[in-house]
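Worked problem 6 (solution included).
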Amino acid sequence: MNDGGDNVQTLQSAPQDGALGNAHHPATLIARDVHAWFGDHHVLGPINLEMPATSITALIGPSGCGKSTFLRILNRMHELVPAAELAGEILLNDTDIYGGEVRATDVRRRIGMVFQKPNPFPAMTISENVLSGLRLCGIKTDDADGLVEECLSRAGLWNEVKNRLDGPGGALSGGQQQRLCIARSLAVDPQVLLMDEPCSALDPTSTRRIEDTMHELKATVTIVIVTHNMQQAQRVAEHCAFFNVEEGEPGGIVESGTMDQIFNDPVDPRTADYVHGRFG
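Solution. The predicted structure is:
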């Protein structure tokens, strides 16, 4: 069915126990020869990409080329899809997150996700939203109030909400809700934060605040962002990977490199056409 050989894993039966090593070490993510399938459909691969620690890597390319699928592979959300399969390795500081002794729950603590549409828990207060990830993971804190302030501050939201922490998270504006979701992800102390078009539904002012937040976070959290906004990619990221898909073929990376190289001196003409708006 698949051409990935013996390395193909049926993700729903992947082992769920083990550990990932030092949680406080700056995190580099590396994809090695990654392929993905949904049933018989080979949707992605081969993917080889290094996403360096304490930096922002942007994934760009037209819709349907596999960027979001790859992002979900990076924290084992791909395996939640029925009939999903995978080949290759995703290394978090040299440990394969799909290894036999690594639990998916541990991976998702280390590698958080912020989605395109803000998804705070509407029945919870702002404070409860921030702390919800800890409760889901069974993590205790001796200073809940201090952690709420720290995470909201790191997400650039504290000054706007500090006097209404007991108010509902769902009552915030769209941009504030997205920053609340970032704060919620930060509460479990991730090494990596994945962002799937986090600003696509936001106005320019809210977008700028999210981008400022990303710049502030990258010193302590490695960030990988999917974006269709070429100007945003250039504003926020140091590294870039251009994904594309040809008819009848799986999606893949055309080229990757520094942001300056991809936008100003691309090797492949398809990259130049895309970043300059000639297709996609």
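Discussion: The longest helix spans residues 204-217.
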